[in-house]
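Worked example 4.2. Below are the chains of a multi-component assembly; read each line carefully before continuing.
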Amino acid sequence: MVEKRGLGIWLSHAIMILGVLIVFFPIWLAFVASTVTQPEIVSPPMPLLPGDQFFINYKKALLAGVNVPVGTMLTNSLVMAIGIAVGKIIISLLSAFAIVYFRFPGKKIFFWLIFITLMLPVEVRIVPTYEIIAGFGMLNSYGGLIFPLIASATATFLFRQFFMTVPDELAEAARVDGAKPLRFFWDILIPMSRTNIAALFVILFIYGWNQYLWPLLITTDPEMNTIVMGIKQMFPSGDDVADWPVIMATSILAMIPPVIVVISMQKLFIRGLVDSEK
Amino acid sequence: MEKRVFFKGWLLPLLLIAPQILVSAVFFFYPAGQAVWQSLFIPDPFGLSMQYVGLGNFKYLLSDPYYRASFFTTGLFSILVTLVSMIPALFLAIVADRLIKGAGTYRTMLIWPYAVAPAIAGVLWLFMFNTRVGVVSWYLGNLGYDWNHVLNGSEAMGLVVVSSAWGRISYNFLFFFAALQSVPKSIIEAAAIDGARFWRRFWTIVLPLLSPTTFFLLVVNVVYAFFETFGVIHTITSGGPQQSTTILVYKVFADGFVGQDLGSSAAQSVILLVVVGALTVFQFKYIERRVHY
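Applying the procedure described above to all two chains together yields the following structure tokens:
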């Protein structure tokens, strides 16, 4: 090892700790704000250490909120994030299996059709997509929140790449043994893809949880708001003072599920991230 | 690359691929087609009929000073977000890479902001810089600097840039750290034995080896700044003051949903489609090359 001793190491640790503190500061401040009273915040500077209002503020946020209880928004976010993650994984597994293991008419065309969707983020087609969802009567519904975000070429490509690395002998053996394609898919391919599926789930869950623009457009009913988009609705219009402790408690609640998912599945997550993006 | 072994049949694969094609057709291709179609029309003031204007919407947009300003704003915003998120990330990754113990713990701590949604990041930063209750703005005020991003366009831009870049520091750190860890230690040691000091080794060996990662992150961060920062802008500035933080994606939303100018919004969507297309092709061309490394 080169130059890994003495003062340099302490300096490196000091820099890292400072870096972590700076990066962490906004989250810390939000947490502190969620544990103090409104008067403590509106007469700056606010305290930098937590107060004793933790239970009061969080209870108020979860059960009452500002427009709608945060508990409801959390449920909506959870349904949306899981719906998007599971839905994407299922349709991508199926289509990747078809593309890799079969020869069928129009395969090239279908492949390119899927490929092109990489270029169409929901942000650039919001108005027409909104009209379609409105036409289906799916405004303010879970279906409307989930379906437009479910088709993604990224997941399909990731599974395609992975299936390509599965040894041909396995499929060969399955075929010789007279196993039907779906049997091979279910008994061999899916179990082999477990880690990839888990890694992808983490990434897609966060993608779904953090959606903002789409829920903002199609959930006009506060009962259907997701927590990430609902926070903005908690700010009063005009000159009224925002209920900061409750808003900050909501911010903390909104980041807990994705943070738990990321931290607890860190290894898988990093692997999935590095794989899916390169 | 193709498999050597295939299963027989054509009906089953078509059924397997059908869900994805169906969802793509209904929620991707049809809306994209609609956007192209609508961009050729303007609705009459009562919304009863559409009048064909050819490329009129595009001509109008390209001569519209607000739209051109939005292009400039987006460019500036993406460059700043990319720099502000990549430079600290690279610096921290280099420092973390020097540590044998503890690097993993720091990494765990640094991942947090990545999981925080852009819109939530916006709320957190807005809270710190709020003109009435913000801690940072209060201390700035004590130092004699009167922070007001509600009125000052440059300060608004600075705030949305930092808020957008914040979570990306984690993301970029993960990639830089992984890349640094994969630099062969033997090369570094050989250079050290030859008397090359840390900075010399960094400039001549490590940085060139990092260039694929750096280039990849450049593209990805620009794409992020273009399309995924809507939440930040909407929560902090709503595009203001005087449109100084109205990036292109925000303008599509503002014109289409707030202003109800469907023709113009559709034309803007089409222009954005072209931009995304170019970025994607660029990205894939590059990745294609990288595979042959």
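Take a moment to check your reading of the output against the notes. The domain at 55-274 of chain A is CATH 1.10.3720.10 (MetI-like fold). Residues 129 and 148 of chain A are 8 Å apart (CA to CA).
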